[in-house]
Amino acid sequence: METSTVTPHTNPTKPRNFLDRLMDNPVITKELKGRMRGRQGFIIIGAYIALISFFIVLIYVFLALDGSISNGDPSFLQTVGKVIFSTVILLELLMLGFIGPALTAGAISAERERKTIDLLRTSLLSARALVFGKLSSAVIFLLLLIFTAIPIQSLAFFLGGVGMTEMIISTLMLVITAIFFCTLGLFFSSFSQRTLIATVLSYASILISFIVFLLCLFFVAVLEGAISNYASQFLENTVSIITWFLFSTNPFFAATMSEAILINDQSIFMTTNNIMGTSSIPLPSPWIIYLVFYTILTLLMIRLSIYFVSRPDR
Asked: Cβ distance 111 to 195 under 8 Å?
């Protein structure tokens, strides 16, 4: 009599977490290893931390020579803490705008220059996996830059004036900014034949956006008096809402005004103050508009990048 033995299944399939699925992408592994094994990654991190530290040291030296720190006034020390924290955040936003597009402007166009884009298309790697692989490796590196600056930001906690709310909001803005700028460079790289063209288009779009912002500031300054004297209440409210949403897409305005609203109104989400100064209607805090706007824009550019990569070159 034969007996059959049933071997129990001892290795059940475990649910894979996000990190496991992310590292299964060979593009991410290749890009991260190539970036962190070379000198470039460490040079960027070192220069990034050194530049932020340099400006913080300048603030300390200026206040020390002025004799203001030695007074020990708690309210003044809190102001110094806010200045240090705001300086670090604004510097990070500025440098992310320079570093982000540089990391991804050659992600796809460099493959075209090396004549390897067709090999990638014929492999088992899909256009979506290629785009997310290139983007994720650059975003991970920028997140490393953001988190390496946290010890410098923490100096503000020793002086006071900065709470956990400001830390969370600023970190969210920095993360979304990092993802957006990386996506911007990847978007132009997805249809450009040369890396130089993609790089120029990326930085030109950033420069144009700041020029438009300055023109809007001038336009609002000219229009404010005319609206308050001759326009109806409905027109005032409409212009105020449009202007508020438009200005909130600028990272420096969003960061500065969100901090001012948090201090003056003691509010995180809403305010009745606006750039026109003519309406008391409630408006969302600029950091909310900033996060929503750039999240939508980032998702749109990722979708277009996948389309351009999957489309055959003509």
From this structure: no
Q: What CA–CA distance (Å, rounded) separates 84 from 88? A: 6
Which conformational region is residue 267 in: left (phi greater than 0), alpha (psi within -120 to 50 degrees), or beta? beta
Output the six-digit token pair for 12. 């059940």
- For the chain, the structural domain boundaries read 38-310
Lowest mean pLDDT among 135-139, 151-155, 270-274, 277-281: 277-281
**Alpha helix locations (H) across 105-163?**
109-113, 117-122, 127-148, 150-153, 155-159
How far, in Å, CA of 187 to CA of 191, rounded?
Answer: 7
User: 174-205: per-residue pLDDT in tens?
Assistant: 999 999 999 999 999 998 889 999 999 999 99
Which alpha helices (H) appear in the chain, and where do they start and end? 18-23, 26-37, 39-66, 74-104, 109-113, 117-122, 127-148, 150-153, 155-159, 164-191, 195-230, 233-247, 251-264, 286-310
Q: What is the pTM of this model?
A: 0.84
Q: What gap in Å lies between CA 102 and CA 79, rounded to an integer?
A: 35
Rounding to the nearest 10 degrees, give the CA dihedral for residues 259, 260, 266, 269: -60
Q: Which amino acid makes up residue 32?
A: L
Amino acid of residue 119: L
pLDDT in tens, 274-301: 655 545 678 888 899 999 999 999 999 9
Other CB atoms closer than 10 Å to residue 283's CB: what's the count?
21
Best CA proximity match to 97, nearest among 196, 40, 43, 178: 178
